[in-house]
Amino acid sequence: MHQATKATARLLLLLLALSLASSRSQSQQKPETFASFWKEFTGALAKNDKEAVITLTKLPFYFDNKDQDRAGFLKIYPQVFTRSIRRCMATAKPHRDPRDKNSYDVYCGELIFSFGKVGGKFKFLNYGPND
Q1: Given this model, what pLDDT does residue 26 score?
Q2: What residues of the chain score a pLDDT lower than 70?
Q3: Could you give the C-alpha distances from 27 to 15, 16, 119, in angstroms and in order?
Q4: What is the structure's pLDDT at 32?
Q5: Among the four 19, 117, 127, 131, which has the fewest Cβ within 10 Å?
Q6: What's the pLDDT score for residue 130?
Q7: How far is CA 36 from each of CA 17, 40, 45, 86, rounded to the nearest angstrom?
Q8: Of residues 58, 49, 65, 112, the one with CA closest to residue 85
Q9: What order do you get walking across the sheet with 111-118 strand by strand?
Q10: Three-state secondary structure along 14-61?
Q11: Planar angle of CA 131, 105, 27, nearest 5 degrees
């Protein structure tokens, strides 16, 4: 029985060490950059992957004078990301707001698409006419 206790203690120490190493590596991860977000976002658009785009979008999403939840965003997705908009996004150059390093705009034709940080992660925030 003494051997079983020692084995259990070693196992617990090993699990504790692995847990500490894992939490340390997670806390040392670099913060998300807009470049990495933009690559993921445009990749999702290129595949027309609505689910991936939703995870990169701030919800609720304001559209047509009301907040759209996840299901609502899925319905409006084809209006927001038409084929021509998805093609534009593939080559568009994001412009950083000089007053806010975490705010970017992308221009596609007559529309402006805005991106920024929400809870430490970049998200697609909104879009509207480029006036």
Answers
A1: 46
A2: 1-31
A3: 18, 17, 16
A4: 79
A5: 131
A6: 83
A7: 31, 6, 14, 18
A8: 112
A9: 95-97, 100-108, 111-118, 121-129
A10: HHHHHHHHHHHHHHCCCCCCHHHHHHHHHHHHHCCCHHHHHHCECCCE
A11: 155
Q: Name the token pair of 18.
A: 């692995």
Q: Say how many CA atoms lie within 13 Å of 57 toward its Cβ.
A: 29
- Residue at 9: amino acid letter: A
Compute the distance between CA of residue 130 and CA of residue 108 in angstroms, rounded to an integer: 9
Return the structure tokens found at 131.
Answer: 């006036």
Cis before residue 31, ω within 30 degrees of 0?
no
Give me the pLDDT at residue 6, please.
62
For 111-121, the pLDDT digits (tens) are: 999 999 999 99
What is the torsion angle, in degrees rounded to the nearest 10, for the CA atoms of residue 75, residue 80, residue 82 and residue 88?
-150
> What's the half-sphere exposure (Cβ side, CA atoms, 13 Å) at 84?
6
